[in-house]
Amino acid sequence: MSLLNQKTVKEAIVFQGIGLHNGKIANLRLIPSEPNTGIVFKRIDLNKNNLVYPNFNNVTNTSLNTTISNHYGVKVSTIEHLMGALFGLGIDNVVIEIDNEEVPILDGSAKEFIKKISRVGVKISEKPIKIIKINKKIEFLQSDKLITIEPSKLSLDIEFEINFDNNLIGKQKNKINVYEDDLNEVFNSRTFCLYEDIEKIKKFGLAKGGTLENAIVVKGNEVLNKEGLRNDKEFVNHKILDCIGDLYLCGYRIIGSVKCLHGGHYLTNQLLRKLFKNNENFSLIEIQERNLPHSLVNQSLLRAIA
Question: What is the pTM of this model?
């Protein structure tokens, strides 16, 4: 069977941890599912109307996280790191049971999701995957923030740039090929904030579960976390992780080239909404190995599964 066929997890995988923003403990379980069922969140703390689909049209909040909701107002928040891990590992179908509103933040990156899924492994079906192929350049501009997506041959390239007034973070830029590059540094990069912003964030009822165990905190020219940074570009790499997770809310892997300047969850969501408004902007293609010798799954991550 081909890596170009749809995949799910081999067996159930359990996570437990605190929500970064609501500060509540959540239990989360990834359960194998059948081909063509996609990714589905199920709020098991609720008895009805408890299915929530990670689709860009269902995004109801992009303030410091990505939150999705169904028609009944049932929410699941901070889904971006888990979605990024599923994208990177090529997981097409899985039921995600969760007993609270927010996905556990774990260490602030996708590292633990990648590690546990890799340990269990993936099950490859006989059904071929489908991909989104970008046909036209689309852009979304907001003040000094810009995100674009345009056609690419066989890859998903993401070029991301951030520019902070803080001297330690400053200007960082990185470009990656999602399907071919070693993305361990991206998936291991943690969420971050400035020390002076913490009280303001908490006044909005957010970051109740934030600690130095699950977020980088920068104060002046110092990283307050004892272990320091995991890589030289951890700040921009975390933004790329968020972008990968948010892009997966289109439902499929993508062939295209993304460039983002000073962006975040909102810009990525708006780009997807604009992209899918017109069917001429993209093509949905069913992939057969005979016509596309490319895995569309990150090979460096798959080595851990093999």
Answer: 0.94
